[in-house]
Amino acid sequence: FDQLIQKSAESISLESIIQLIQDHLLKNTTINQKSKYKTKKSTEITSTEDISTISHRFRGADLIFNRILHDKTIDRSQVVIGYEDRFTGIHEIPFNEFKKVHEHEYGVPMHRIRHFKINGQIVWDRTQKLDILTGSDQ
């Protein structure tokens, strides 16, 4: 803009100055839009790369809980959930009796779940990063 103002001292009309400013702003706007497009494209590439790494990540208790809840091949009566009580340690409760904290006043928060057992065998364990159920061991 300083250059445009200096040119105005050389007896350029006000309309010419306004036109120069508009041209300058239009030029900068198109450059910014092009750079935004380039960065958006590069973030899309990294996000698709992240999707492949997510499939190998250790899944949380909430995802395993939902898998057991909706998978018809798993007999829920044979599933036991181990959760950690802050004062008394690990407790085990049958899957069908488990209450989530957001569904029941005295429920257990999902972050307190430590393991899932099916037929007495541990299929998911947070502390050991064991996930036999979905195969996302770490």
What does this structure look like?
By secondary structure, the chain is of the alpha+beta class. The chain has two domains: 2-54; 61-131, no CATH class. The protein is 42% helix and 19% strand. It contains three helices and five strands; from the N terminus they run H-H-H-E-E-E-E-E. It has helices spanning 2-8, 14-54, 61-70; strands at 79-85, 89-94, 113-118, 121-125, 130-131. Helix 1 runs antiparallel to helix 2 (14-54). The longest helix has 41 residues, at 14-54. The protein is rod-shaped, with a radius of gyration of 30 Å. The two termini are 58 Å apart.
Gross morphology: rod-shaped
Which sequence of SSEs, written as H and E, runs from N to C? HHHEEEEE
Radius of gyration computed on alpha carbons? 30 Å
Strand order of the largest sheet: 2-1-3-4-5
Residue windows where pLDDT falls under 50 for at least 5 positions: none
Number of helices: 3
Largest sheet: 5 strands, antiparallel
Instruction: Please report the distance between the alpha carbons of the first and last residues.
Output: 58 Å
Overall mean confidence score, pLDDT: 79
